[in-house]
Each structure stands twice: as C-alpha cells, then as structure tokens.
Amino acid sequence: MTGLFERPGPRWFTIPAHRPFADDLALGLHRALSPRGPEALADAVVLTPTRRGARALADAFVRAGGGRAILPPQMRPLGDLETGEPPFEPGDLALDLPAAIDPLRRRFELARLVKAHETDLKRDLDAAAALELADALGGFLDSLQIEEIDPSGRLDDLVGADQAEHWAISRDFLQTALEAWPRRLAELGVADVSVRRVLLLRRLAEQWDARPPRNVLVAAGSTGTAPATAALLAVVARAPQGAVVLPGLDLDLADPAWRVAGEQHPQGAMRRLLQRSGVERREVGVWPVSAAPDFRGRWRRRIVNEALRPPEKTDDWLEQIAALRAEGADDGVDPFVAGLSGLSLVDARHEEEAATVAALALREALETPGRTAALVTPDPTLARRVMARLARWDVVPDSSAGVALAGAPAAVLARLLTRLAGDPLDPVALLAVLKHPYAALGLAPEDLDRRRRALELWGLRGPRRADWPALEAKIGRAERASEDERADALSLCLRLQGVLAPLSAAFADGPAAVGEAALALARALEAVAADEAGSAGRLWSGHGGEALSRLLAGLIDGSDGLPPVSARGFGDLLFKLVSGETVRVGGATHPRLRILGAIEARTTRADLLVVAGLEEGVWPQGAPVDPFLSRPMRAALGLPPPERRIGLAAHDFAQAACAPEVVLVHAERREGAPSVKSRWLWRLETLVGGAKDSRGEPLRLPGRPELLDWARALDAAGDYRPAPRPAPLPPLADRPRNMAVTRIEALTRDPYAVWARDILRLYPLDAPDQAVDARARGTAIHTAFETLARDWPRELPPDAAAVFQRLYVEALRDQGMPEEALARETALAREAGAWVAALEADRRADGRAIHVELKGELTFPAPGGDFTLTARADRIEIDPDGFGHILDFKTGKAPSQKEVDTGFSPQLTLTAAILMAGGFEGLGRPRPGDLTYLEVTGRKPAGKVEVRALAGEASEEAARLALEGARKLVAQYDDPARPYLSRIAPQFLKARVSDYDHLARVFEWSTSGDEGET
Fold it and tell me: How many domains does one find in the chain?
C-alpha cells in the first residue's frame, strides 16, 4: 500500500461492487498515507460525486482510524450533473465567470421566453403550462451544455420530410430560443449553472494538466458521464500522485460482452469513460484493500453481473452457469449457494405492504447492537411511506429523500388560501384554514377556538352560502345557537372577510400579475398566522417556512415574465411549484439507519440494504417525454438517448444488489393496477432459475416470508367478533315524557334513534359544503305553501302559479342552493306552481279556513307518568261542515297505505287524534277530515294527492287506533327492562337510513345474523 501512488502511468482502480466502497477507499488511503506522517493524509484531496458521498467518506475515515484521532483528507464534491449539487470551485478560476442564475429565476425567465413565442408554438399557454414547457426547454439547454454540443448548423436539417409538422414547429422554436436565451442571460449578467459548471471543470482540468498538483489527489465514485467530468478524471489519473477509483467496474465480464455494453448496460457509462480516457479495461486494477478474499461477495457479484450482461450476449447463459459451477468447484463451493446467501426477495401485494415490509426489515436490524441498515430506492414516495411507518416506533432515519414542500404546513396553508382567493366562501377550505396549526388571526388560542367552533356549527356546516351577507344571515337565524355563539361566529366571520379581502381583490378585475398575486398571498398568510402581538410565529421558520418564503420571494421579484393568472390558475401554478420543491428534514435522526437514493448508495454501504421500488417505471424509470425533440432529432443533435439513464440506474442496482445482506422488495400492484417487475429482477430470477438444485428443480431467489407475515399481522384486526345488536336500557327517569308524532314514528321503526337523539341529545351535524338535498326542497315547499296561505288566506292572487314558483325558488336560494342548480329547479317550480294553483283553487272553492304550521298537544296517563304527544301540522283546513282536513307536504314518496294502517307511519293519524281532543288552540274539537299527503315534485305529474283516510268514520277510527297504539307503545317503554333496540322494523327501512346507524353498528350485527329481538 505504501507504493500505491508511486506506480508509473495513470492510476485507475476499481472497488468491486460487493465491497463497501467508502470503507475500502478510506482504509486504503489511510494505510497508504499514514507512514508518511499525519500531515500526508490531511494534505490529500478526495473528489466525490456528491456532498452526501463526502459525508459518508468522512464517517469511513473515522472507522479507518480505529478509534484514534486522525486528520482526514480534504473532501470536495464535484457535483453530480444529474442532481444539481454545486461543483468544487477551484480558487480564482471562477473570478471572471458571471454568477450562476438562480434556478427559480431561470425557470421564470424561460417561461417568459416560451410565453412570448406561444403563437409560434400554436399554443395558448397559461402560467402553469408555460412553466411546464419552460422546464422542458431548460432540460434541452442543460443537455446541450453538459454534452458540450454546439447546435449551430444542425437544426436546419433536424426534421425530415417524413416527420410530423409539430416537430418542425419545435425546431423553429428551438432555433429562436437558442438565439434569445444567451442574450437574455447577458442582459441579466448571469450564466446557466450547467455552462458555468462545465467551464469550471474544463479550466480545472487544464490547470491541473499544465501544473499537476504535487499532493495526493483522488477522484472516487464518479462514472464520468459528462465529457467535462471525464476529462477531469483523466487528468486526475495522470497527476503525479493522482488516482481514479471507479465504483463496481466489472473486470470479469467477457470481452465480447464488454465490447457491446451499450447505453442500457450497467457498465456502459464506465466503458465510455475508459474509451474517452484512452484506458483499456485490463489496465484498471483492483483497489488494494478490496482485493481481500471474499468468496460470498465474489460469487454474488458474478451472479448479478452475469444476470445484467448485454441481452445479445445471453444466448450462452446455460454454458455460463455450468462454467460458474465448474469454477466454484475448484474452491469447493456452489457459486449459487454462496452467491445467493444473504440475498432475499419479498413480493408484496401492493406498495403499502411493500413500505411496511421495508420498515420492518429496517426495524429488525436495529435489534442487533451496532448493526446498520439502509433503504435504497429511487422512489421518494415509497421512501416517505417507509419513514411514516418507522415513526410508529419513534425511529427517524437519516433520509436523503426529504419531503415535498407541498406537504409542509406553511405550503399547505398557502394552497388553502389560493383556493379561497377564487372561492372565499368554500366551507371546507375555510375550516381547514381555521384549524391549521399556524392559524391565529390575531386572537388568543382559546378565543380563536371558541369562535371557530361557533362559526363551524352555525355557519359553515350544511350547504354553502353565495356571499358573506348570506352567511351572516344564516348565522343570525340559527335558532339553537345562543346569543354569545352567534356573536362569536359573526365576529370571526368579519375577521375572515378582512383577511381574505385583499387576496380576492387581487383577482377582482380579472387575471392578476403573478408577482402581485404572490405578494397578496404572502400578506394573507401573515394575517392568518399573526398572533395577538402581530407576530407571524412559525410561518416562515423551519425548513418548510424558509423554502416557501424563498419561493414566494422569487415569485414576487422574478416572475414578471409569466402571463397573468386567474385565482385558480395561480393555485395551479403554486401547486406545481411547491410539488417540485424538496425540503430536507433536519433534527435528530437514528445513527444506524439511512434512507438513500440510488446514486448515493454507490458509495454508502450498511450491514443490511433494503432495495425497494423494483417495478418497471420506478426502477428503472420510464424515458421522459420530450415535447421538443423526437428520438431521431436527439440523435441528429448528438444528444445521448434517454436509455443512458437506464444504464446508470442499472449500475446503481447492481451496486446495491451486491451488498453482503440485501432484501429486494417488489410490489405486485401499484396505484391499484398490476405492476411489472423490474427488468433486472426478471433477469436475475431467470438466470437463477436456469441453475438446478440437487433434485434437478430450478433454483429460486431466497425469500423472507416472515417479513410478509409480520407486515400483514401488524395492523390485522384479529379474530372477527361482530358487535351484538345494541340494546341500551336507560333509567325510567331519563326516558322521554313528551314526544312529537314524528318521533313516535321513529320509536316504532328504530327505537335506538330515539335513545340517541331524545335521551342522549346527540344531534347529527351537516357536513360542510353539503349538497342541497331533498330536505332543503321539503323545507322550500313548506315555506312556499305557508307563505301563500298566510298572505292570501281567502282569495288567491291572479298569478298564483307564478307566486308559488317565486316563493319556492326564493326559499331554495335561502337554503343555499347554487344558481346553476336553481336553473333546473326553476323549471320544476314552474310545473309545480301550475299544479298548486289549480289545487288551491279547487280546495278553497267551498270557503274553508286554512291554518298552517299549527302546534298541538295531547297528554294522557302512562305507567311512567303523564305523557304528552305534540304535533306541528303543515296544514289544517276547516270546511263549512266542521271537518278538519289534515295535509302533509312531501317532495318524495309519501308513506304507503299499509305503513299508515299498521301504525309505522302514524304522523297524520296521531295529528288527527290531537285535533279530535282539542289539542290545537283556537280550533275547538272538529271531527277529523281527510288525512292527505300532497306529493309535490314538479315532474310529470307535477303533484299527486294521496288520501290515506277519508273524512268521517274512517279518519276517526284511524285516529283512535293510532292513539291506542301510541299509548301501548309508551307503556312498553315505561318498563325499565325494555331496551331501545336498533331497527326493529327493517321491512319499512329498506329505503331509509338512520342518522344513528353508524353508532348502532347496524352493518356489523345485521350481517352476522344477530337480529335479536324485534
């Protein structure tokens, strides 16, 4: 090792894929440089692909020191060209270069360019669409700059005569953009990040080539995919004490296969690098520390590399399997037994189960003291799911995935406010803002909580209101609210109007400039988050708040090139921006657990690697769709094909799969649809299946069935023991002593609902933004009939049909029905109005007196004490013969004759009994007349008269039987042993769902066969 940097010629090394890259590199440098003295290692410079790679290497040097204090080398990230890590800027080489343009400003400037030429593109672009095309244009420019391609003269012949017209449109636009973009950068005095990076790397390579550094210089972990990086690596290898250490170069791959390793092959990138550098593969040596014997790791690497060999060279796989086994026989091992030891595959049913399996495998590793584990996946969504599952054990891994800014509390609040900018009366968004942890609105927490509760209960639940005055009117009419509650709700309503008014005003005159909209949003955010002292509190603090503040500042200062946006368009734009931003999560993390991206896993190793996301479209990802360039156009320009990314991803997979202990995780379904296994997993399974065991059966990748068992048992419900049918037994003193006739109907059909509502006082809450349903139509019909009868008690107005139509529509509007729905209801109201006018004229012809919404009551003795029946009659008509006709209005189907006769719908008959007993003040004791339901729908027919008992003996007998039934029913429930069962008359509940079925767990006990007493 002491002569490592004294060997002549360029020094190219590789650390095999099965070896821990960072540990071997650190140990090798420590052994080689320590004999020179402690300063030798400190003077060395190690170039890593990324910052995280540099941190992993720093940890490895601590381990290499064996617990002794050492001065590690200077570790500089070159910057992986795919991830945007900042490059190592070498001294004064950057002094004459313009500063790099801010990435967000660059996106906005490119969007300005795209929007300015939307006519040429034959597109009508809003801000979000312009930004999307700007990102595609930025990717095209980056590709040209990274590959150092001069497109001059190449664009003219880019589109052939046989290609679609839109490619010609794209070409013309790209020509314009390639001329306009450099001019714009020059005006701003900045440069593209990729251009600046390439210039720095080229200048550094030229400087080091002319004046090579005399100290130890090592470039480690890079595959040199970009020409400038490849050139720098070649210079490093030629330096007097320079060396390049490649990750996982396959020195055992047969020469014919090596020569055809293309873009999709894991060795393709390093093959291109060696060709550019004029180095033969046989000249690359194994890093000395990595040459230690490791039979299991060696065979794992051989199997994985063989599985991933170029497809055109797999026709001799069976021969290669035999050759591997013959080679292993010399060592006394079966290569497949040794190579597959420590490797396992878990096939999960879906991505949720895959995340649970991965989390359990990681958690299991922590049970062993000192054992490290890492999840490797290119899927950030899967990584976040695994983090969420680890949180149940209070385990926080060191994750490179971070979280999307869209999920940060500050960004969530910002998106909610953009919804309210265009729809300030959206109840769901209003409640979400009011309940957001950052919301204060200048109030003390307990004060805000009290007012928020009042506003929710009496203003925001139920159908939404059209404007603020309508919402205030609804609060003022809330009968069940106390005066204090109404005052609290109204005060918070006014406060919200003041906070949201400037944001809505930004779009009052139509689309607004993006910068102005962003400024209005920032002010609204601060107003919502302001505490009693006016401080915005946590709004702009933390990683999420800081990221959002930078984003909004960029919109305010640099978005003048974006087209004006509507309120909804601004919301779409903000969502796109925050979804594309990743926030790195800080705080304390577990020292032995990491979540890594595929690139970072090249140089980072753990005792256990869980490799997940092995589905096509995830790992590898599908080739991105380029709106500007087709594949032939990319090839004509000299740009790399999209498959190059697949080759790099294949290399990352091979590196991870060669770790000593690996769990491969595949999900059979993703987003509810069947998935396809990753091509590399398919090939690995196919190769292993070609080898036979001692019985001649195909080998299979080992599994970890216990992980699946644990995952499925983790949240399993256990044995299914359905809840029995509820049978509450409240004390007699708590049972009701007065009930409305409609509640008697409920007691007949579903006593449990009476127990929940009339005894426990559990009242159902309307959902926020609830649709205007049949109940609202029923209320509107009652209101229209009542108003018509009250304002015209004797003679009808000449335009009675139009009056009823107007009354009905106004009542619906007051109930919160939106204008677009009122258009349909107006047509129904017109038909209903004509039918009602004819009905009213006919019924009033004999001069009968009409009484509406009268209250009546009847008290009778019962075992538990006097019991009072109450009724609120929709309409009672006293005719000249003294009969009291009782009418009830329905907008749906009226109860059937059978339901009335059997006592399951006693509303009309019990109302008649109260009328006979003189329970309606001012009406005396008239004989009951017709008991009638009026079905009013506005359809064909517009209405229907359903008489359930005719005036005279029939209605009297029905009233008598109903009262007798009510007495018996009350007596039954005056027995303390009588339970309030759920749904005792299911034959009359087929089309009815109680508000309390979920509390009674009806589905559970009714499907288990526990019908109990009825």
Answer: 5
Residues 821 and 874 in one domain: yes
Query: Pick the residue with more confidence: 786 or 633?
Result: 786
Provide the residue range defining the domain that includes 919: 765-978
Whole-angstrom Cα distance, residue 749 to residue 753? 9
The model's pLDDT over 469-479, given as tens digits with 9 standing for 90+, comes to 989 988 998 88
Q: Cα–Cα distance between 207 and 236 in angstroms, integer?
A: 11
962 pLDDT exceeds 90? yes
**Which of 248-262, 313-327, 596-610, 672-686 bottoms out in mean pLDDT, i.e. has the lowest?**
313-327
Lookup: tokens for 821: 């729905």
Return d(Cα 359, Cα 350) in angstroms, integer: 14
- CATH code of residue 216: 3.40.50
Together in a domain, 483 and 565: yes
Write the Ramachandran bin of 542: left for phi over 0, alpha for psi from -120 to 50, otherwise beta.
left
Q: Which of 176, 191, 206 is the last residue of a domain?
A: 191
CATH code of the domain containing 788? 3.90.320
The 10s digit of each residue's pLDDT in 565-596 is 999 999 999 998 998 888 776 567 888 998 98
Q: Is residue 82 part of a domain?
A: yes
Query: What ranges in 768-896 are assigned the alpha helix state H?
Result: 774-791, 800-814, 819-843
Judge if 844 and 937 occupy the same domain.
Answer: yes
* Per-residue pLDDT at 702: 92
Using CA atoms, how far apart are residues 753 and 737, in angstroms rounded to an integer? 16
The structure tokens 């999709």 sit at 264
Asked if residue 399 has pLDDT above 70, the reply is yes
Q: What is the pTM of this model?
A: 0.81
- Do both 390 and 410 map to the same domain? no
What SS3 class is residue 851? strand
The verdict on 440 and 561 lying in the same domain is yes
The verdict on 567 and 445 lying in the same domain is: yes
Distance CA 502, CA 421 (A): 9
Look at residue 264 in the predicted model and tell me its pLDDT: 83
Question: How would residue 274 be classed by pLDDT, with cut points 50, 70 and 90?
Answer: very high
Q: Which residues pair with 692 in a beta bridge?
A: 698
Is 790 in the same domain as 900?
yes
> Residue 322 falls within a domain, yes or no?
no
Instruction: Tell me how far apart the alpha carbons of residues 556 and 108 are, in angstroms, rounded to a whole number.
Output: 11
Quick one: 184 and 228 in the same domain? no
Rounded Cα gap, residues 646 and 266, in angstroms: 8
Higher pLDDT, 380 or 773: 380
For 661-686, b/e burial (b = at least 16 CB within 10 A) is bbbbbbbbbbeeeebebbbbbebbbe
pLDDT at 873: 92
Chosen domain end from 168, 191, 214: 191
d(CA 629, CA 626): 6
Mean pLDDT of the 518-544 span = 89
Spatial distance between the Cα atoms of 410 and 266, rounded to a whole number of angstroms: 41
Q: Assess if residue 748 is contained within a domain.
A: no
